[in-house]
Automatic annotation (TrEMBL):
Coiled coil: none annotated. Belongs to the aldo/keto reductase family. Residues 58-257 form the NADP-dependent oxidoreductase domain. InterPro entries: AKR, Aldo/ket_reductase_CS, NAD(P)_OxRdtase_dom_sf, NADP_OxRdtase_dom. PROSITE patterns: ALDOKETO_REDUCTASE_2, ALDOKETO_REDUCTASE_3. Substrate binds at residue 80. It comes from Euroglyphus maynei. Keywords: NADP, Oxidoreductase. This is Aldehyde reductase-like protein.
Amino acid sequence: MKILLLIIKNFQAAKINKTIQLKNGHHIPVVGLGTSRIAPTDEQIIQAIKNAIDVELAIQSVRQSLANLRLEYLDLVLIHWPMSFQSGGEKVPKFPNGTIIGSDLSKENFELAYQGLEDACDQNLTRSIGVSNFNIKQLDKLLSANNRRHEPMVNQVECHPHLNQEKLLKHCHNNGIRLVAYSPLRRGNTILFDEPKLKQIAHEHNRTIAQIILRWQLQRDVIIIPRTSKKHRMLENISLFDFHLNQTEMSTIMSLDRSNNTGGDDDGREIRFESASHLSEFPFVKN
């Protein structure tokens, strides 16, 4: 299991006071700043990944992150993947053929790692916890545990017009879980930005295609984390609160979903992680 530490900081070039309330009462911004392309020495980058397949390893990961960041508590900590990777050594251990080395299958249990995050909550090391890349079946397994002390506040997944995650979004909302979209612009893939319908909507609003896509997500109650290291792009990505898409436009963008495509056609997914597809908790399977 991997633990992803996520802290969403305000972008100081513009005040962002738009937040969303989690089920536990805490608030987080509706627009975060994806930072994976910025040098890891930058103070604005706050990301810690640790292999974890049991309770103790999970809470150790949180404690180590706090020590590295010199903080007393975190706002939100996520289990990055439902799969378990071999502990020790490389962050993503691989066989010579490139496939991921999983943990002992008897230990491939994200519920144990989640219990560690619950302990972190109990010890006031983090305000909220959640998951990332979990499908509906995995969420239900987590939610149905009899000994659950803290519910997941968010599920962070790839989400954009070509992979709108509508079924997962509704399931999350029905269970009080907020969906967080990473790669909300499909990593800038021109396949998405060349969509004529998006170009038309952007033209009518005098906005960029990126702004139209991000506004569409906000109106679906999806938290977004657009990724860029360029200041002008950051400003563009947060200038989303002075216009509105009508229902026809929202439906038009929804119609661009490709997740049901088969036979080798583009299904919209950018993050495939096929080298881990042999692991028992690999999440990207058709429901």
